[in-house]
Structure formats: C-alpha cells, structure tokens
Amino acid sequence: MEPILQVKNISKTFPGVKALSDVTADFYPGEVHTLVGENGAGKSTLIKIISGVYTPDPGGKVIFEGKEMNFTEPGQAIEAGIAVIHQELSIAKDLTVAQNVWLGREKKKKNGLLDKAKMNKDTQDILDFMKVDLKATTIAGELNAAQQQMVEIAKVISQNAKVVVMDEPTSSLSEHEIDALFEQVHILKKNNVAIIYITHRLKELTQICERVTVLRDGCKVDTMMVADVTEKQIVASMVGREMGDYYDKHDHEQGKEMLRVENLTREGVFRDISFTAYAGEILGFSGLVGAGRTEVMEAIFGATPIDSGKVFVKGEEVHFKNPREAIEKKIGLVTEDRRRTGLLLEKNIIENTSLPSLPFHAKSLGFVNKEWEKEQAQKYKESLRVKAPDLQTILRTLSGGNQQKVILGKWLAADSEILILDEPTRGIDVNARSEFYALMNDFVEAGGAIIMISSEMPEVIGIANRVIVMREGKISGELTGEDINEQSIISLASITSDAE
Amino acid sequence: MKQKLVAVMLTLAMTAALAACGSKAEAPAEAPAETEAPAEAEAEAPEAEAPEAEEPAAGGADLASLKFGFVVGSFEHTFYQLIGQGIEEECKAQGLADTQFSVLDASLDPVIATQKVETLTADGCNAIALACNDAAGVKPAIENADKDGVAMFTFDCTSESDAINCFVGTDNYQGGVLGGQELLRLSEEGDTVAIIGYPTASSCLDRENGAVDTVGDQRNLLSGYDYKGDANEAQKIMENILTTNPEVKAVFCVGDPAATGALASIKAAGSDCKIIGFDGNPESKEAILDAENGKYWVSEVSQNPKEIGATIVREMISFMTEGTVTDKQIFIAPYIITAENAAE
Amino acid sequence: MKVKMDKTRVKKLLSENIVVIVLILLCIGFGIASDTFFSVRNVSNILSQMCTNALLASGLTYVIILGGIDISVGSVVAVAGIIASYAGLQFPNMGIPFAIVLLIVCGIAVGLVCGFINGVLIAYFDVIPMICTLSTMTALRGVAYVITGGQPVYGLPTSFAFLGASRIIPTAGMPNGAVPVVVIFTIIVVAFMHILLSQTVFGRHVFAVGSNKNVAHLSGINVRKITFLCHVLSSVMAGLCGVVIASKLQNGQPGSGEGYEMFAIASTVLGGTSLAGGSGSVARAMFGCAVIAVIKTGMDLLQIYSYWQNVVIGCIIILAVVLDMAQKRGRN
What ipTM was estimated for this complex? Predict the structure, then answer.
C-alpha cells in the first residue's frame, strides 16, 4: 500500500527553540495513525506543518499523493484535501449547521446569490450518510459539544478530504459521545480516508488506531503497529530522556505552613483540591495541559470564583474576592501567558515593577511615590540581572527571559511571600532558565513558598521538592523525593485504561 | 541634518496646503485673493486703532478706514446666500475694498455665532451685523462686542438689546398674515388646513403666529409642528398630517425647506393639498412655475433677502459716517408670489 | 551605533510632538497671512474659544486611554446648561461668586448623574461603550428637549454670564479686559485633570487598565471601578463644559453641544491619545484643541469659506491618525 501522505526530514526552529527535528513519517489511507507524546513533544507543530499553518525548515518535505507540497497557508492544504478538526472547535455558533459546513466555500447560483437550498440538501445528505440525527438548518449554537464535532466531521466530508487531522477530539466528550465519534472514524476509514489522530488517552489506541508514532522533545522515537505493542511499552518510549544539566535542585528544609487549600471545587473545572505549600520549598504541579492546574491557581488568587472549599494563608482562613486581597496577603501570581496576562507590554520597567504595590506606597492624596518606584525598579533590575538599557525601556523590546524577570521583580517589590508560577520558563532560552531557577531557589531559601505549574517533565523533576499531579480536574497523586520521576508522573497524569 | 530637512518639508507642505485651500475657498465667496495686498485700513494695527470709547463711535469716520463684519445664519440656506450676495454687492457698490468686509457663517448655532462675533471683533471690525437665529443666545455676544466699541446691527432676526443700533428684516408677522390669507383663499369653510412651523426660530414663530391669528376659527387648523429647519423633518411631519387628516386642503410652510419636504410627501401620497411657502428662494419660484410641482406649490410669501442685505449695509455705513440710521427697525415688506408673477 | 540612536531619538521626538509641530506651523502660516492673528485680542479669543472643547477633551482623554469612547458628552452639555439655567432663574439677584459656585455645582451634579449612568452600564453591565453612550446621547438630548419644551431658558441675571463671557485684567487695547475668565477656569480644571492622570496612583491605574485589563486585574486593580470613575470624570467635564456654555450665552439651549463630541475626540486623538487605549495625555490633548481652534479662527480671519474649515480639520485628523498608526507599525 502506498502512503497518501509522507513527511520527510521535517525540522522546525522557532527563535530559541527547536520544536521539531528531522521527523519522518508515513500516513496510509484507511488507517488511523496516532501521534503521542508529552506536551511540547512537537505533535502540534507537526500537524501545523501538515496543514499549512507553518512552513518547515529548509530540507523538510511534505509529500501528498506522490507530489511535494509547499503550503504557505491553511487554505491550500484544505484545497488539496487535508482537513483539520481542532481541539477547540471552530464552529460559528450563530450560523446553521449547513452554513457552518460550507463556511468560506459557499455554493452560489448562477446569478451570484447563495444557493441555500442546495447547501441545505447536500449537508442533510452528508448527515444522513453519517447516520447522525441532526438537521442541516439547526443553529449550531444549540448543539452540544459532541454534536458540534459531528458538524466538523460533516464539513470534512463535504471537503472530500483525503487526510483528516483530529487534535484531541475526545477531550471534551463523555464516554457515550466518544463511542458515537468513533463510529464516524470507522466510516471515514471505510471510505479510505487517512486519519492523523492526537490523544493523551492511551486506551483509545487499541480502540481505533492501527499505527502509533511517539514523539519526544521534537524527535521521533519510533513508529509502531498498535497490535504489536502494549500500553506500557508506549509509555516507556515516551519517557526516558536525559536530564538537562541546568537544573539545580536544592534540598530545602520544609518550613512553616504558608498556604493550605481544602476541598477546593469549581463545578465542571476542578474538584476536591487539597494541598499545603510550605516555606522553603518549591511545590511542583504537574499534569497535562487542560488538567485544571491554572484554573485552581487563579481561583486561589481570587481572580475567579470557587463553588466550595477553604483557603488558609499562614493558618488564617481567607476568602479572596479579587486579586487585590490576595496581594495584600502577600501572594503573587506569575501567569502562564506573559504577553496576555503578565505584562503591560507598552509600558516601561518602572511602571510594570510598581504596578501591584503602587497603592501601598502612595503619598498623600494618592500621588504616585515616584522616588520609591524608581528605587524598586532599579533594585530588582540589578538583583535579578534584567538586561535592559535603562529603566525607561518598554517591556515589548525585552527578551522573554528578561520580561519574566521583570514580572518576578514586580511581585518581589510587592513583598510577596507565596509565589505561584504558571509555566515560568515557557519560551525562555536555556541560559535564562538556569538563572531563573537560581532566583527561585533564592526566594524559597529566604523563607518564601513557591508553587510551580509546569508541563515540562524535566523541569518539574529537576527543580521541585515535592510534586502534585493533576488529572482531569482532580489531584491524582503526590510524589516526593525519589518518587519524582517521569514514569510515575506520566502514569499519574495520563488517562490510561488502568486509571479509569 | 535630517531633522532640518523634515522641518523644511513639513513647513512647505503645510503652507502649500493652506495656500491651496485659501485660493479655492475664495471662489464661492466671489472674493479675489486679498492676502497679498493688505488695504490701508488694515495697515494700522488693530491694537492701536481700537476705539477706546465705551460707546461705539457713531458718525464722522472716514469710510475708507472702516471695516465691516457680517454673520449670517448658515450658507447652507439659499436665503442666507442671497442675503450674503446682497451684502457683497452693496459693499462693492459703496466702494468698499474686499479687505474691508467679511461675511461669516454661524451654522445656526448660537455658540458659533458668538465665536464669529469675537473673531470679527479681534479682526478689527468697526461695525458688525448678525442674524440672531437664536435671539437670547447671542445677546451676551452682542453686548460684549458693543462694550468693546463695535457698533452692532442685526438683520433677518434680532435680539432684545439696547446695543443694537439698527435691525433690518422681514416683517415676519405680516408675512404670516399674508400666508394665513392665502390659506383662507385656497380653502373653504369647514376645510382642514395646516401650518408647519419652527417655533425655536423666533422669526418662524412670528410667521406662525401671524398665520394662526389670521385663520383663527375660520378653518379647522392643524398647527404646533416643529420641522427644525430640516426638509427631511418637514417631509415626515407632512406624512403624519396626511395620514391622520387626508382631507387637508392647504399647508402653510414657514420656510422653503419645509415646503420642499411637504411637496415630496404630498406628491407621494397623491393628495391635492396646496402648499404656501415662505422665503422666496429661487427653488420656490421654480416649483411654482413647474408644470407638475406647480399643481401643489401654488403660492409663496416672498422675502427680499438681497434687499435686506443691501439695506443693512447702507444703514451701517450711514451710522458710521453720519451717525444716523433711517429707523431703529426697518422692515422689508414681504409679498406674495404666484404663477402670475413668479417669472419676474 | 551612536548615529542610529540619534536618528531614532529624533524620530521619536518628532512623532511624539507632531501636534506641537503642526500647531507651530499653523500659527506661522496664519501669522504671515493675517496681521491680526497674533494680536492680544485674537490670541485671547482663540484661548476662550478652545475652552469648551478643552474641557470635553480632558475628560475624554481618560475614557479613550481606557480604550473606550464617550459620545454622549454633547448631550450632557445641553442638560447641564439647562439645569444650571433653571437654577439661575431661582436667584435673580445673585452675586458673581454665588453664580460661579452655582454653575460649578450644577455642572458637577449633572455630570455625576450622567456619568453614573454611563459608568454603571459600561463598567458593571459590560455594555459596549460606543453603544451605551450612543443611547445615552440620544436619551439625554431628548431629556433636554422634554425639560425645556424645546425653548431656550432665558432671563438670567448678568452675574450668571460672568464665568463664561467676562474678561478681566484690562489692557490699553482692550479696556474691557484681555483675559477671559473662562480661560482661567479651564486652565485650573485641565491642570487638575492632567495631574490626576500623570501623577497619581489612580491615573497610573487608568493607563494599566487601558493597556491590558487582564494584567491590571491580576495586579490587584479594580478594573470595573476604574472604568466607572473614568466615565464619571468624562461626564463631569461635559457638565462643566455645559454650564460654561450656558453662562457664555446667558441662557440654556436644549440644542447646545450637538456634534461637540466629534471635535473633542478629534482633539484628543490629535494630541496623540491612542484610540486603542493605553497611552495618552491631557496636556497633549490641549495642543489638539489648540490646533482645531487655530484652524477655525485663522480661516475665519482669512475669510475662507466655512465648509473648507471642516475639510481641513478632517484632513488634519486623518493625518494624525495615520501617523499614529505608522508609528505603531514601525514598532512591531
């Protein structure tokens, strides 16, 4: 059998990061080919190259139906017959099912007006072919997540796609809905469509999948036939990587209790979260993206509401209604997305450093204490070794690592004692990372507590003194000392058949 | 170096733009370029020649050393354009140089009218005449200019102030009486007739009152509408009148824009309601003479805007050079235009 | 390296102060074309004529920095003028100090009420500012006509006109005073607004919210409260502008202030306040006001047809916005 799609020697370099290196894989018609790997292993980058969102580094080739393709935008890939169903569905909620299916490729009558009747009929034909009980004229917003997924599949069928990429399609579906989805996958398979499937649920492999490719740190580890391997073997090939030498774990002495959380719950997001963070330690939070870690931290910080549960700061119960109250209790939150939620990009170092603490140091009548804020900015620029020409430098012009240091500086200026760091080294180059880890160690050695969310396994293992793993909104385990290793973290984080 | 270059280029561009605007803008005002050759009058700095007196210097001035300012309601209205023409023609006839008079536009806004009076005062005008479309709103401006030694005049509509030396306008109440008589002429006892008014403009309110007083109880009279000087509003008002009172026989519009709006509604509704306009603008004469529109727009209370403009110029010059005006209030009589005399 | 630095610095200086450069060039141009342009009288006129716009622009700067807009200011002007005029009618024998206090109190009170409505809707009910203020603009204009029955409120004592129409400090050329009272009043108010924005924690928070609401929220700033207060400030400035106009005309006009929002927004944008939010300055907005006032007065002096004034003002605003955009693009 000839592969319909081949990727050959694909590499992709982003500034400071090599996301993919020399990946080669074949995809066959009528087969489900699953890509597995940790967050950041390169799965998303690979499908973005296949679907024309990114172009590979020179030397890499995408060969479709025997011809080399040079997609520069997604439209060309769709045109050729490669369709993608994204994890976050791209359904226009105010349009009908038929309008969604033909979005951007509307059928027209000879006079240039929309041919609604034909679009409705064709859509209905596809839906009937799929054997799903949906009407072409229903408004998409009224459908549930599973039904919307069916609309996406109908769209893919209408495009006559020969290759369909499905990015974690089951992540938001219930057990029953997953069965319905798999039925569609089987229909697609029968129609000789090649399916590229991404999932974290390893048990799905045996249900629908023929071939599996394991990616790790941007490299292909192996491609295997599912029938020949066990789930354990797949997990084993996902881990087992060299530790970087830039991690420097200090054995801190666990100090007094700083933050205690009991049975924190927000319906549908996280449930029964209980843990304690102590002075002098870095507490790691591991798990898959979407496990609810960020949401838990935002809730503790008062940025989003909780349904039930208790939060104690240094033994005293608190009820933060907004971040300001959390800041007053000396908690700081370094968010995951610096540019969107961490920094005022168009403002300078002084304004960013003093932002949370400004009201506490204001002069009479609410005037800004400009000497104080300048002093603080200077102090942390020096002690955190922020590389910038002067304090007036606009944050946008700094590198990711220096931006992150300014954010850290802003919480230090606010006298934070508990720091919550959400993916603190994302997009930061190797040197800046080790500097940042050193700063984190300094902070806890001075009596602070750090809670670090990280999806990067080596980082969690290399820096955290204790690790809590979350899975699907719940804490699935806690690891200390020698138990902190990839094997145990992955088995706690992944949705395997044993875990269910 | 580069900085200098940019500065020079910017200056050039800006000056060029201004020059271009200046030369083009003068065309509609029919005033030849005047910036290059300042007249003798302007050569004296306004600071130095500003009259010190509390009272405006009446009489005895040399005409060639005087400067006159005019503020009309809005150049968007033909009526004011005609007054402006009358002013310009008379100024030239009296031998004034182009630099000795300016005509500005107040956009029918009392705040803008006030600003224009201030600007003209600053420009060294010895006498200013303005149309007080909002009598109360411009009163402080008139009195302040008067205090600064400018002789103040009004035309078209006036304001109650001792500072005003002379007012030239249409006898609006009398015009309203003429309009009322036309309403009576075009209808019979028991018929319904209407008036489309503009009560916030005092001149239009006078017209409406003149017509209401004339018609009295002799007809079923619909009034109390406000078309806000906007033909589009008048069109809507007429539409409403025709919906509720399809039998309406004649409508008196206190301004030509109202008549234009009403005409559109009446034609659309297929009514045979007759229109009496007010102002005497060219479009009204054209409509009355038109085979189709003349069936509806049959009569017009005509003002004489050019004569108003010319008269105010004569009175201002007389006041400044001889110290007298013909009368404190001069009314230019309105007259009726119908198909018979419209061609003249 | 050094040359390059200088170049960028000059470029930055030029683009940041483009409004000042435009103003200077305009003044030079009009100064050459008209003898009267630089007379004390005319300068004092230009200053007094930009006051209403300056008051509006100083308040609008706050909401525009937030990334919002307030187009209801023109209608707030009318309501405030009317309320102040009715209040003035109750005290036919009032003295000048009382009249000033009455006007200011009325302006602030009406501004607070209107600002409260806008602020609550926008900050706490998340109504889009454009839609919200469009509605309040229409509704408040209606209120102005309902209260007055469409007629101006007149018959006010002379003391009422002191704030808006009087001049003090006589000079030889101007025996009735060279300095308009309204200019002094406006300078005080605008200075307050400038300091509030540039020197206080509140002002800093306005910039933070305008730059990035998420960051501001997570840095402990009450985003809703800041949004609310900015809209209150904008309306209070409109209220003060309204009473100044009422005082200037010595009566209350239901139609007053119509279309003023556009000139005020234009001045603010000319002054370099970005419509995308996050940056701006009250002081610079004043230069924007000055540019517009200079164009209007200067073209009147040159007897340039009034239609052309709008064409020129429109073109200058486009120029300002294009430069702003070009600057942003240059950065990215």
Answer: 0.85
What average pLDDT does range A359-371 have in this prediction? 92
Residue B257 sits in a domain of what CATH number?
3.40.50.2300
Residue C219 at interface with chain A, using a CB cutoff of 8 Å: yes
Q: How far apart are CA C275 and CA B47, in angstroms?
A: 42
* Predicted confidence band of residue C7 (pLDDT cuts 50, 70, 90): low
- What is the DSSP code (8-state) at residue B50? S
The residue ranges of DSSP E strands in A217-321, in sequence order, are 219-225, 257-266, 270-278, 282-287, 308-313, 316-318
Nearest CB among A351, A365, A396 relative to C204 is that of A351
Among C292, C306, C300, C287, smallest CA distance to C33 is for C300
What domain range is B264 assigned to? 172-303
B10: nearest CB among C25, C151, C249: C25
Identity of the residue in B123, B144, B147 whose CB atom sits nearest the CB atom of C301: B123
Q: pLDDT by residue (tens digit) across A386-445?
A: 888 889 988 988 877 889 899 999 999 999 999 999 988 876 766 677 788 888 999 999
Query: Which chain C residue has the Cα nearest residue B142?
Result: C249
Measure A17 CA to nearest chain C CA, in Å.
21
Instruction: Tell me the domain boundaries of chain C.
Output: 48-258
User: What are the strands, taking DSSP E only, across A28-148?
Assistant: 32-36, 61-64, 67-69, 82-85
Do the chains contact at A344 and C208, CB–CB below 8 Å? yes
- pLDDT attached to residue B207: 93
**Strand, helix or coil for residue A83:** strand
Q: Are residues A152 and A192 in the same domain?
A: yes
Q: What average pLDDT does range C61-69 have in this prediction?
A: 95
Give C278's contacts in chain A (Cβ within 8 Å). Answer: 344, 346-347
- Could C211 and A346 be called an inter-chain contact, meaning their C-beta atoms sit closer than 8 Å? yes
CB atoms within 10 A of CB A156: 25
Q: What pLDDT band is residue C69 in, cutting at 50, 70 and 90?
A: very high
C248 to chain B, any CB pair closer than 8 A? The answer is yes
Least confident of A378-387, B240-249, C322-331: C322-331
In a mutagenesis test of the B interface, which of C249, C289, C310 is the best target, namely the one with the most B β-carbons within 10 Å? C249
Q: What is the pLDDT of residues C102-113, one digit of tens each?
A: 999 999 999 999
Max avg pLDDT among A131-135, B260-264, C215-219: C215-219
- Whether residues A23 and A127 share a domain: the answer is yes
Chain A: closest CA distance from residue C122 (Å): 19
Residue of chain B whose Cα is closest to the Cα of C301: B123
Q: Total domain count for chain A?
A: 2
- Touching A (3+ Cβ pairs <8 A), the chains are C
For A351, the domain range is 257-493
Domain tally, chain B: 1
Q: Could you tell me which residues are beta bridge partners of residue B69?
A: B102, B128
| Among the partner residues A323, A347, A366, nearest to C217 by beta-carbon distance | A323
User: What pLDDT is recorded for position C5?
Assistant: 53
Give CA–CA dist B259/B275, Å, rounded: 7
What would the two tokens of residue B258 be? Answer: 């109202």
Examine residue B39 and state whether it is found in any structural domain, yes or no: no
Q: Which residue of C has its CA nearest to B39?
A: C35
Confidence band, pLDDT 50/70/90 cuts, at residue B42: very low
Looking at every residue in chain A, the average pLDDT score rounds to 87
Polymer length of chain C:
332
CB pairs under 8 A between A and C: 77
End-to-end CA distance of chain A: 37
